Amino acid sequence: MSSVVVSDPGRSLARGFGRGVRDWIPAVVVLVATLVGWELAIDAFDIQRFLLPKPSAIADRFWAERETLWAAGWFTFQEALWGFALGCSVAIAAALLLARFRPLGTALMPYFIAANAVPIIAFAPIAVAWFGIDKGSKIAISAVLCFFPVLVNTLKGLTSVKPSSIELMRSYAAGNVQIFRRVRIPASLPYLFSSLKVASVLAMIGAIVGEYFGGSLTSLGIQIKSAAALFNFETAWAAILVACILGISFYLAVALVERLAMRWHPSARGAQS
Amino acid sequence: MSGVGSTEPAGVSGVGSTEESAAAVTISGLEKTFAKGGTTALVDIELELRPGEFVSLIGPSGCGKSTLLRIIGDLVEPTRGTVHVGGKTAHQARLDRDYGMVFQEAVLYDWRTVAKNITLPLELAGWSRARRVERTKEMVDLVELSGFESHHPWQLSGGMQMRVAIARALSFDPKLLLMDEPFGALDEMTRERLNLELLRIWEASRSTVVFVTHSITEAVFLSTRVVVMSPRPGRIAAVVDVDLPQPRTADTREEPRFFELATELRELLRGRTAEGVH
Fold it and tell me: Does the beta-carbon distance from A266 to B70 stay under 8 Å?
């Protein structure tokens, strides 16, 4: 396989896209079947609406309360976005620093890995005390959730470059800065982006869970929590749907940037058959 | 050439200019002990290479031939002894970009196209864009990869990748080409074809080549001299002049003298490992 010279990249991209559409058909069939089955099952088994409302009822509510829900969604998404931006940028800066000063990285790495395994959500009530009931605490929780996976992965990407790649650069009399710019950083991009995708999901989780501990009325967490408390389950589910749409869009946006930034990568050329 | 290389004051690297026929590489009293485990990798290495020579280092695994190559290239520090390249210390030679290195793996940067990989050392050396483009084209032609300039490394076969690595190593016209088993991972047929290509390139570029291999026939075919090394600790067991006529062709491999030399090397290698005779 490695000895095959791939023909025109443009054509294989187009072919990949065509194949992509065909590949989606089974998934769409599953979605439609699930929704229809769900709708029918609720009548057939007489399921209580507080356990699970009908999809059609959720859709009705989603439409009827679209303004409130999307306002809440936008509010929460902003918190997630700020948390993501803050957590990831600090993590990337820290990774660059620790990769540059290796003894520091070696000394701190075990703690980062340990911290990465801590259920940070447990700190949510304390974050409210530290950063206030408003956006601050949600951004902080999102940022901390994003920080560790991005740090650990980026550092791994920056430091697991093949020794011969570095030796080659040194043989060209390249200094440390040039080695970082031209080898370590590009080599770390696949690691960085897979952690950014994870972080995009974690940022939304952090913001919503943070809101469960109190916050603005126009936020998804509060909408979900209060709707459920008032037995208004269709609204709660509609708010969850908004959260899903925003979360998936966020993830896809990061994945798109990944594609654009790593057009050189084999996976970007429809080669992942 | 006296004193410990690294203690020489900066700026006197030009002392070699007094003798135009300065050796391409002079290694004296070289010893290498690895700090980890205290393994002695190399002892008593004395070697002088003339400009334009093609010298192979051959020996069993663990004889320190790759380490010796890396010491010449200033990628590994020797424990004792000195290495001078064209009258300069190895360190100064590296900073002056006198080395073109090729490893067993092609070590191409995946995010760069073929042309961009070849141009990398030129970028680092601060060449202008126009000169880089022109030079890259020359190198692509030299290794016969025209039409593949905008391909990425993963789209090429192993042999083509190695040709890119060689083009990259030669792009800035280094005085010394250091090659660490460059064809070791390739199949026999590709290896023989690239051997011929390398000789053609060597004749065109007139640079000095140090070539690490563990293939006896490859060493005989390519070299003007072969340095036979023995393991634990690595030392020079013998130096064999390869008096086959130049230029070498595919027929060279069938000459009686080729077999004689291969046999001689084989016996030297066996003698060293089995009996340890001096």
Answer: no
Distance from CA of A162 to the nearest CA of B (A): 9
A171–B96 CB contact, under 8 Å: no
Q: Which of A270, A190, A164, A187 is nearest to B155 (CA)?
A: A270
pLDDT of amino acid B19:
43
Tell me the Cα Rg of chain A. Answer: 23
Q: Give, to the nearest 10 degrees, the angle between helix A185-212 and helix A220-229.
A: 30
Distance from CA of B240 to the nearest CA of A (A): 29
Residues 6+ apart with CB under 8 A from A44: none
* Residue B84 to residue B92: CA distance in whole angstroms: 9
User: Do B120 and A262 make contact, defined as CB atoms within 8 angstroms?
Assistant: no
Q: Do A172 and B125 touch (CB under 8 A)?
A: yes
Instruction: Return the beta strands (E) in A40-192 as ranges.
Output: none
Torsion of CA B160, B162, B167, B173, to 10 degrees: -170
Residue ranges of domains in chain B = 21-98+175-278, 108-173
pTM of the model: 0.78
Burial code of A199-216, b = ≥16 C-beta within 10 A, e = fewer? Answer: bbbbbbbbbbbbbebebb
Which of A171, A182, A187 is opposite residue B73, by nearest beta carbon?
A: A171
> For A164, which of B103, B124, B155 is closest by C-beta distance?
B103
Residue A92 to residue B108: CA distance in whole angstroms: 25
For residue B23, what pLDDT is reported? Answer: 82
Q: At residue B258, does pLDDT exceed 60?
A: yes
HSE-CB at B126 with a 13 A cutoff on CA atoms is 4
The fold of A57-269 is MetI-like fold (1.10.3720)
A107–chain B Cβ distance below 8 A for any pair: no
Domain boundaries, chain A: 9-47, 57-269
Chain B residues whose CB is inside 8 A of the A173 CB are 94-97, 124
Rounded Cα distance between B15 and B51, Å, is 17
Which residues of chain A lie closer than 8 angstroms to B190, CB-CB?
none
Asked if A164 lies within 8 A of B121 by C-beta distance, the reply is no
Per-residue pLDDT for A94 more than 70? yes
- pLDDT tens digits, one per residue of B27-43: 888 888 888 777 888 88
- Whether CATH 3.30.470.20 fits B21-98+175-278: no
**pLDDT value at residue B225:** 93
End-to-end CA distance of chain A: 12
